[in-house]
Specification:
The structure is a single chain. This protein has about 450 residues and is of the alpha+beta class. The chain has 16 helices and 17 strands. Strands 1-2-13-14-16-15 form a six-stranded mixed β-sheet. It has a five-stranded antiparallel β-sheet with strand order 10-9-4-3-12. A four-stranded antiparallel β-sheet has the order 7-8-11-17, with no helix packed on it. A hairpin with a 3-residue loop joins strand 9 and strand 10. The longest helix has 18 residues. Bound molecules: coenzyme A (COA). The site of coenzyme A has 17 residues, from helix 12, helix 13 and helix 14.
């Protein structure tokens, strides 16, 4: 059966390149009626292994049976399994088309069934790295979470987070306690330096970035706040570096500071390897749970993933917005998260993710303040904040493993010594504050 024939039957529209490229390669292993992961024994075992809830297991078994009974879906499922778990190809699964209920009753859960076909391969990879099966089970529990989230958002069972779960099944994402970790690269235009003597950290903005008076990028909040623009300057000399510091509260300051290169070696810049941190919607995020998770990550990740060396934990999220700390009433767990990071502004930051995660607004421009739900104290606090003209925005954070002392707000505390300043005598010799007025104007 050709892919075109399948598309004629299923009407999936433009097919992704991933599918067309290797279609013949998955043909030899395909035996109609014999696709291993569509068999009830396999699928039940896979669901039991990852402790899938009984109701969802039943739905997946039903979907697999329907896929097996429809020759086009059966062949397609076999091909997707091949691509994901046998081809070794880098895939762009976000472009794979959703198969709606209108196309086929099993469509909405098609990819969840296909992902479960990868359990033996992910088990093998975890064993090779000496990771306990409990970590794998915890990591893969995200599949059930996203199936439930699909139901919550759409009112019907399904699974649409193909791109996100690709991380889990390709062994890129590891869940350790409350948090999830994915290797990444630092992508923000900032440099971080550490004082060799005190261990304190300071970030400087790259040159040529346009900021507002309040230290946010000029294009933050959809570029709606148009006053007070200034451009950052970073001068890297042989012996000194002069630039605009980022305060750990996440704003770039217009004043300039100068660091002596030999006293302040660089510890992070754009492109460096990092471990990005993600927070699943799996219940409250208490400070203790977050601290435990980081402490585990610091010892676990280098031990089991020596091929993933990283310089810092990083995160970009609405959960890092320091304005959450001033929300009335104060959301206890949320407000405790940002102070633990060295925050930085995000290029093009908006309220989009906060509205999505707090009010289920997925289409830009459709948020209606007057009709927004006010079920939780956070929703009520945010509405009041927005009525006063406030803008929530995604914020970035950096946390170096060697600074981990969760609950102690280490960067904010040491900031007084770093900048507040440079008045601390030991630092005065190494760094000096200059107040150059030579900013380039936009
Ligand atoms: C992150 C998260 C677990 C925090 O929840 P939490 O630990 O309960 O947070 P807090 O204890 O600070 O909550 C205080 C109040 O805000 C509410 N609240 C917290 N997160 C909320 C959310 N996303 N939507 C609506 N209300 C929320 C709580 O229900 C509580 O309300 P109450 O006082 O009426 O009982 C939660 O927001 C969540 O699940 N978010 C989705 C995941 C996410 O956003 N990940 C980040 C993507 S990068």
């Amino acid at each position: 059966m050709s892919l075109d024939q399948i598309n004629q039957r299923l009407r999936l529209g433009c097919l992704p390149e991933d599918w067309t490229q290797r279609w013949p390669a998955s043909e030899p292993a395909f035996i109609s009626g014999g696709v291993f992961f569509l068999q009830p024994t396999y699928l039940r075992h896979a669901c039991d292994t990852i402790r899938m809830d009984a109701e969802i297991t039943g739905l997946l078994l039903d979907a697999a049976q329907r896929i097996a009974a429809e020759p086009t879906l059966e062949r397609l499922a076999s091909h997707c399994h091949y691509l994901l778990f046998e081809s070794g190809l880098e895939l762009n699964v976000r472009q794979w088309p959703q198969i709606s209920r209108e196309i086929h009753a099993a469509g909405p859960l098609f990819y969840a069934v296909v992902y479960l076909s990868g359990l033996p391969s992910i088990q093998r990879l975890y064993r090779q790295r000496g990771i306990a099966e409990s970590v794998m089970i915890h990591t893969l529990s995200d599949l059930e979470l996203w199936i439930r989230e699909h139901k919550r958002r759409n009112g019907a069972w399904g699974f649409s987070n193909l791109g996100w779960m690709h991380n889990h099944f390709r062994e890129k994402l590891i869940a350790l306690g409350r948090l999830q970790f994915i290797p990444g690269k630092f992508g923000s235009p900032f440099h971080f330096y550490r004082d060799v003597r005190s261990g304190k950290v300071v970030g400087l903005a790259e040159g040529g970035c346009l900021f507002r008076d309040d230290g946010q990028f000029a294009n933050a909040d959809y570029g709606t706040i148009r006053k007070g623009y200034w451009a950052s300057r970073l001068e890297m000399g042989d012996r000194q570096i002069t630039g605009n510091p980022i305060s750990p509260w996440g704003v770039v300051e217009r004043r300039e500071i100068t660091l002596a290169r030999d006293a302040w070696p660089e510890i992070l810049r754009s492109g460096d390897p990092t471990m990005t941190v993600h927070i699943p919607a799996s219940g409250p995020m208490t400070p203790k749970a977050c601290g435990d998770s980081f402490r585990e990550a610091v010892s676990f990740l280098p031990r089991h993933f020596p091929d993933w060396p990283f310089r810092a934990f990083t995160c970009i999220s609405w959960l890092l917005d320091p304005q959450l700390e001033a929300m009335d009433p104060r959301p206890a767990n949320l407000a405790a998260f940002p102070p633990e990071w060295y925050l930085h502004p995000v290029d093009g930051a908006t309220e989009r993710q906060a509205l999505e995660r707090v009010f289920d607004i997925f289409e830009e421009g459709t948020f209606n303040l007057a009709a927004a739900p006010m079920r939780t104290s956070l929703q009520r606090g945010i509405i009041a904040f927005m009525r006063r003209g406030g803008h929530l925005r995604s914020t970035g954070g950096v946390l170096f493993p060697e600074d981990l002392d969760w609950g102690k707000s280490v960067y904010r505390k040491s900031w007084k010594g770093v900048i507040g300043c440079f008045a601390v005598s030991g630092l005065r010799q190494q760094c000096s504050l200059s107040r150059s007025q030579s900013h380039r104007r936009p």
